[in-house]
Amino acid sequence: MPDHTSPGTLLSELRARPPLVHCITNFVAMNIAANVLLAAGASPAMVHAQEEAGEFAAIAGALTINIGTLSSAWLRGMETAAIAAGQSGKPWVLDPVAHYATGFRRAAVGRLLELGPAVIRGNASEIIALAGGASRGQGVDSRDGVEHAEESARLLARVHGAIVAVTGAVDFVTDGERAVRIEGGSALMLQVTALGCSLTCLVGAFLAVRPDAPFEATVAALATFAVAGETAASKAHGPGSFSWRFLDALAALDASLLDRQARLRCA
Amino acid sequence: MPDHTSPGTLLSELRARPPLVHCITNFVAMNIAANVLLAAGASPAMVHAQEEAGEFAAIAGALTINIGTLSSAWLRGMETAAIAAGQSGKPWVLDPVAHYATGFRRAAVGRLLELGPAVIRGNASEIIALAGGASRGQGVDSRDGVEHAEESARLLARVHGAIVAVTGAVDFVTDGERAVRIEGGSALMLQVTALGCSLTCLVGAFLAVRPDAPFEATVAALATFAVAGETAASKAHGPGSFSWRFLDALAALDASLLDRQARLRCA
Amino acid sequence: MPDHTSPGTLLSELRARPPLVHCITNFVAMNIAANVLLAAGASPAMVHAQEEAGEFAAIAGALTINIGTLSSAWLRGMETAAIAAGQSGKPWVLDPVAHYATGFRRAAVGRLLELGPAVIRGNASEIIALAGGASRGQGVDSRDGVEHAEESARLLARVHGAIVAVTGAVDFVTDGERAVRIEGGSALMLQVTALGCSLTCLVGAFLAVRPDAPFEATVAALATFAVAGETAASKAHGPGSFSWRFLDALAALDASLLDRQARLRCA
């Protein structure tokens, strides 16, 4: 990445002017996602009700929508927020958690996709299924490798004009043409719930910093996660000790450390 | 326990083929319960809405229902899921949190009980009240000793054809005839919120592994919790340091360690 | 403070007879707030539905209401609970999270204020805006110093006949006439989500202990938080390691330590 769009540069900008990130996420992720954003330096706000989600989306720098613990009432709030974000020119991120699992979820994601997310983040099974492929996901867990989702991701990015991020052992980000792989993180991250959901919120934070560069913003968020995850894992003895070390590592990360340790490769 | 139904054997089976556990639990427990299941090796999914809870229950290996932060909308989702679980032959666990506290709660538990849970898990005050006795519970906390709930548990098990687990300083599990006491754990566990709720979800995970042996599955879940709790407490300095050590201990537990350290006695 | 209303005396009373605290709080705060109350020695219960919130408020020692993740259904539960608390003579605490951010929130707080909270706790931006001033809050975060909210707090206290607590680097508590400043805590507390919300619940716990002395109860809760926060911060390396150390410090705090370390000044 050129210096002015490197992960470290974007992290510095985020810290200098903490963006307000409007998160509509699931009940499992609420607390850890807010803590991840605070540790990274952003200002999270969890606002979901149809009565105010539209008004709030127009105030915030970016919006993130995650369908983890979906219901009809929440779906109405999500649609209201996504429409308002679109109208006020704010980018938003879609996290289609286990969208393949039920008819209700499939229909919900279909409607949200039509509202034009700037970024779609999912695990390999979710991205494969979203592109119309046959995924092997079980519940919310991926059973597919990221490498098997790359073509699906490119297709999805082109069809929806969005950045698509597939996260797993090695992450993959594409705008349909360009693509980057991001190494790092730790297998322990699969043993801690809602870290993927939290990453979606962090993508929103970087998008708010650089709404005009969603590809670079997404890469920066994933690189931040990967470096902090690797740092935390080096001292952790299990998922419990990983979690709090991960927040400490996120808070301690600075621009130069991030750019030095991020392992990005063009794909 | 015979070797083929020992806690360690069941834990090995759970790890070899991670079961998908459908959890409808309360807002306080969502995150820690998911982390407990992941640390133990299972695959949790929190799905509560009436629109999809039935479809999802049929996919999962087992279902758990906890009425902690109840509302009418959630109760409809719980009933839909319990009915679907019954129709597709999937076992489910009922956690009747503070069911004695309000009329709404009492009515809800009455309806759920009629849908045939395979296992009922509660603290002593909850189990005594569920069997029609006079409990001294305050809010969600038990004020009764497990030993005072044993007869209530046996009665409840016989009336509902279910396994009943009473958890506390020494746990008690019965199918109405057989009974086992499980020692271990730590007093620190009472200072960490939602560990009982998380245990209910873990009972679901073991039930999914051995739907034909709900008594042994319940004992295995409780033994796993007791051993991990004892391990974590040995190094903890309070409820905060206990929590993450407990997740580390759960993840580090293996079959032989579990069978060696579990303290089960026929009652 | 005189000995019989010192923070330590009130903490001892709380530990001797753990009060049942009815908390209606947001999804982000649910777990950490319950853990804070348990660590301090109180008995938290999260009960929000209109169907039972009134019945439960009459059972509990005090009620706390936080509008963090508001919706119309939850607002009905909050109003039902506040009315029941009033009718049964139980004090309650209002936490007007980001009430200035949307019309829905402003209207909700207006209705709740009319139901007569005993204590209002907020950050400086929230208190300034509640008193009709121009605040600079962004989302849920304060952008104003506590010192700029003191006159707003005094005004608000007089108009509503309530104790008003403004929390920040140095906390400020007033009944409209008397006022106390409380030093302590740590800047790390701003990097951990929902600690303010948890403090609101802890104010409820102390209120339940001394419903007749809401000023002293509020000061005791804030002093407890400040001392535990300072203790935890002395060994923490970031927001992750702060969180669990804070719970350990709360649990380890005793009356004499609290009274020795609390830094209160009349204002």
Structure description:
The structure is a homotrimer of 267-residue chains. Chain A is of the alpha/beta class. The first copy, chain A, has one domain: UDP-N-acetylmuramoyl-L-alanine:D-glutamate ligase (3-Layer(aba) Sandwich), CATH 3.40.1190. Chain A contains eleven helices and nine strands. Chain A has a nine-stranded mixed beta sheet with strand order 2-1-3-4-5-6-7-8-9, with helices on both faces. Chains A and B meet through helix 2, helix 5 and helix 10 of A and helix 2, strand 2, helix 3 and helix 10 of B.
Please sum up the structure shown.
Chain A has helices at 7-16, 30-40, 50-59, 72-87, 103-113, 124-130, 150-160, 195-209, 214-233, 239-252, 255-261; strands at residues 20-24, 43-46, 62-66, 92-95, 119-123, 163-167, 171-174, 179-183, 263-266. The first copy, chain A, has a nine-stranded mixed beta sheet, sandwiched between helices. Chain A has eleven helices and nine strands.
**Alpha plus pi helix count of chain A:** 11
Major sheet of chain A: order of its strands?
Answer: 2-1-3-4-5-6-7-8-9
Helix content of chain A: 40-55%
CATH topology of chain A: the name is UDP-N-acetylmuramoyl-L-alanine:D-glutamate ligase
Determine the mean pLDDT of chain A: 97
Number of domains of chain A: 1
Bin the strand percentage of chain A. Answer: 15-25%
Label the CATH architecture of chain A: 3-Layer(aba) Sandwich
CATH superfamily of chain A: Ribokinase
H and E string of chain A: HEHEHEHEHEHHEEEHHHHE
Largest protein interface, residues of each chain: A-B, 35 and 33 residues
- Uncertain ranges of chain A: none
Cα distance, first to last residue of chain A? 13 Å
Q: Could you give a short account of the major beta sheet of chain A?
A: 9 strands, mixed
* Assembly state (oligomeric): homotrimer
Under CATH at level 1, the class of chain A stands as Alpha Beta
| SS content category of chain A | alpha/beta
What is the overall shape of chain A? Answer: globular
